[in-house]
Amino acid sequence: MHNNKLLYILFGIIFLILLPVANVAGMIDAGTMALWGRYLCFAIAAIGIDLIWGYTGIMSMCHAFFFCLGAYGLGMFMTVSNLPEGQAVPDFMSWNRVESLPFFWIPFQNFFSAIVSCLVVTGIFAFLFGYFIFRRRIKGVFFAIITQAFALAMYLLFSRNETLLGGSNGLTNFKYILGFDLHSGNVKLALYLITAVFLILIFFLSKKLTESKFGKVLAGIRDSESRLRFTGYKVVSYQTVIFIIGALIAAIGGMLYLPQTGIITPGRMDVKASIEMLVWVALGGRGNLKGAVTGALIVNLLYNIFTSLMPEAWPYILGALYIITVLFLKNGIAGLFGSRSTPIRNS
Fold it and tell me: What angle do CA 307, 312, 314 make, to 5 degrees?
């Protein structure tokens, strides 16, 4: 417990004090702050994956889709709010001879309704997909394959121009959000701080969830699902709820990600993106929220370094990291420091 408090304090000092102060002092530029803000968004998504995979034993390979649902939802609002005066629809709609906004864009014309719509749509997708799959008692590699197919289907759907979501180019060319200039250093710093606060809030809420009776049932499902069913627990309900929670957390990460990166494309939701998210959690340590956050930050930092130095080598490096984790770091980086909170017997 004492070590955990020290880690939390250290995290707060680095990400809430040192980095922002360095930015204000001119030691770190606005672009670097936006880059770290994106890393924190990925860490938020990693928490959602860890709740599903690490604590419940469900390997979901479509989590990047839920991340993108949040990003696309906010992107739709920003697209409409950034239209030049007198222009009714974005350019990519005009090219498809669409003269007015489609009906599904209407809830995203207002900021607050866009936020609510993002969460509602994500929740509906997660419920419809999760409930019927869990009800059929599909799990393990079969569940992973189905979620992989689902991610691919959504990637192909969003890539089509007829979907009216920007096609393969996605949504981009944002200049303002709620009247604030996205190119301003102060705005980038504010977005970074908002993301850091959300990460901390989601982390502690998730930690409280895993330590509750609900969290203990999730661990029971992971370690012996049949035993939980035999004792009368409604396993499908628990699986569905945690799947929805994980998806909503990913969507929040996506909403925070978009204004800091300025673009969202279907490429962010493909199967490879979801696999990379699993690598974050595996490397950091499954069943340990600190490990999920650490893994996301480390892998994305390495991605930035190696894609700058030798971009063609990154897929091999990522693969090597996963192999090393599977063979030698079963409990991830967190396991090296004895920070395993919920031991995994069966995965």
Answer: 55
Range of the domain at 228: 2-274
* Residue 329 in domain: no
Q: Would residue 118 count as lying in a domain?
A: yes
Q: Determine the straight-line distance between the first and last CA of the chain, rounded to whole angstroms.
A: 26
Q: Is the pTM of this model over 0.85?
A: yes
Domain count within the chain: 1
Quick one: 21 exposed, middle or buried, by C-beta within 10 A (0-12, 13-18, 19+)? exposed
**Which long-range contacts (C-beta less than 8 Å, at least 24 apart) are formed by 294-302?**
294/333, 294/334, 295/46, 295/332, 295/333, 296/39, 296/42, 296/43, 296/45, 296/46, 297/39, 297/40, 297/42, 297/43, 298/333, 300/38, 300/39, 300/42, 301/39
Q: What is the pLDDT of residues 185-224, one digit of tens each?
A: 999 999 999 999 999 999 999 999 999 999 999 999 998 8
Residue spans of alpha helices (H) in the chain: 2-12, 19-24, 30-49, 63-81, 91-94, 111-135, 140-159, 185-211, 213-230, 235-261, 271-284, 289-309, 314-328, 332-336
In a domain, 311, yes or no: no
CA–CA dist 199, 330 (Å, integer): 25
Residue 334 belongs to some domain of the structure: no
Structure tokens at 79: 């697209």
What is the per-residue pLDDT for 229? 86
Predicted pLDDT of residue 346: 44
